[in-house]
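chain below, 367 aa
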Amino acid sequence: MSQTITTTIGPVRLIGENATPIWGMSNAERNRRMAESAAKNGSALAPGHELLFNLTYAFDPLLLRLVLETPGTLFVWAGTPVVGQVAQGVDPLTAPHVIDLSDGRKLYNRQLRKLEQPMVRVLEPSSRREIERRSYFGAYKGVTDLLTKYLWPELALILTRIAAQLKMTPNMVSVIGVTLCLAATWLFAQGMFWTGFLSGFIFMVLDTVDGKLARCTITSSKWGNVIDHGVDLVHPPFWWYFWGTGLAYWGLGLSGGTFTFIMTAVIAGYVLQRLIEGMFLKDFKMDIHVWRPFDSQFRLITARRNPNMVILFVSLLAGRPDIGLIALAWWTIISLVVHAVRLAQAYGVRRSGQPIVSWMDEAEAAS
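prediction:
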């Protein structure tokens, strides 16, 4: 049994039926949302082609992006069609590019910077929670900081499920998070570091939840991305600045010269590191942290907000939040130097005539 529905991207053929919900919606609705989201992001079908979704299966959205990039591509599982962009009115298995994922092959997800076997599972009541779990972890970036990667994925999964059940939108979660971010900034300025840290920690977890909720429920929005990424980009220097001013309440205020040095190092280092990352992306068409394995490992601890908060947390445990801020400044300088050296090395490799290729691309080609 199949039916064809009309979407913004074009005709979509749904094979079979499936009453098992996923992330609070039917599988048909999930697939429809993915098609509409792809159209909103500029994807289009080739003339005479349609999207095909098999409602028996839940799959990684990466597969949809790949079939939209190459018309005539069909992903199958043990010979059964799962998702594809195929010619209308013909047997999908006659598509020119039939790829069977049951062989365990891995694919490189450039958007999320990871190499892994994409999820394809039969969606049924007994597998629903495991599929939701896998789709949630599938929405995680493979190259990120150590807290996001190791500390709170399970907590964020619980919160993401609760938010989905409550029909919350990602923007609702973002608004709560931004409020907590502002509260943490004020608390730091008052020297209330532990309370501010708690507020900041919850914000940091929700900063994961809103993105995962958007990806899992296919409800990303332009303004949601602006709010999420804009706040992420802007707020860290304010946290470090007001942490520094709040030290006075602990009797640990820094001298004018020391405070100026720290703020210059922290703010200039943060901005310059971001610029280096932007230059690498512009000139080499990839994130600097996926070039070689070292870069991916260094991303775990580089001087971004989450690793910096680990430094401050340890200093709070020791009762010396002033030393934590000084250590944060020096770690920012070290991270900046590492990124600058890696950028210079990349330019050197290109001048020698060698291509700049991600180690993940190399691993995918070798698999």
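The chain has a mean pLDDT of 93. The chain has 13 helices and ten strands.
thats it, cya
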